[in-house]
Amino acid sequence: LYPTTPKISDTVLIEHCAYTNRWRFVSPAAKAMFCLGGFVAAFTASQATAAALVAALIVVVTLAGAGMPLASYLRIALPPLGFLLLGCLSLAYSLDMNSTNGKLAIHWLVDGWSPLGQLAARSLGALTALLFLALTTPMFDLIALLRRLKVPEVLLEIMVLCYRMLFVFSEALHNTQTAQAASLGYATPGLALRSLGSLTANLTLQIWQRSRDLHLAAQSRNNDGPLRFLEPEYANSRRDVWIAMFGGAALIACAVGL
Q: CA 73, 75, 79: angle at the middle one, nearest 5?
């Protein structure tokens, strides 16, 4: 039977972590500065061990510093880690179309394990830096930061609308699945397959209608000016930026020194 209480979606979980972590009211500029330092450190690391150490340090800062629950962090990190693993596996072999016998040949790790390990470690370091920023900073704070950095307003409005539609999609999915489970729509494999098709059709229609409503709402105000939100005040923002710069520089020094 399909469970009547589906788990919280990953999108909602990310936003929950962003609003409830210990560094919620730390300046977004400081957290973005530390994230940038993590990116630079990951891609300047000359050895895979150095990049892996940078990733480990960022994870420790996220869990211990921001107070992120380990279970939530692992649940959010597992999908991108799986994508990273698949990408590394696809790079572990190459296809030779011009082999001597005229057949298709597969060569494993032509250049050895070192380039693949270095690429995986660098990607892991960049992933942990991005997760740090996403799990400690709400989306609207990031949009406000990007606005101060003079990012075009069109891109920011697209970000806001896509962000909104993620929650609309999650809510529609939850409501439809709950209704189907209440009517035993997942009692048998045949009913489950039928419910899945109905769920897909229903979600397509709902998302199209709600996106049309958002478009009409935007037209009703003649698209006059950018979308604005109230920004919270951050105490000691200058101090936080300096601390973040020092932390990012320490990560870079650690990556270069090893």
A: 115
pLDDT, tens digit, for every residue of 84-104?
Answer: 888 888 777 766 666 566 666
Phi, psi of 6 (to 5 degrees): -60, 150
Residue 140 near residue 159 (C-beta atoms within 8 A)? no
pTM: 0.79
How far is the C-alpha of 134 from the C-alpha of 123, rounded, in Å? 16
Angle at 121 between CA 132 and CA 141, to 5 degrees: 15
Per-residue pLDDT for 63 more than 70?
yes
CA 141, 145, 151, 155: dihedral to nearest 10 degrees? -10
Distances (CA, A) of 162 to 5, 152, 155: 26, 16, 11
Q: Is there a contact between 108 and 92 (Cβ–Cβ < 8 Å)?
A: yes
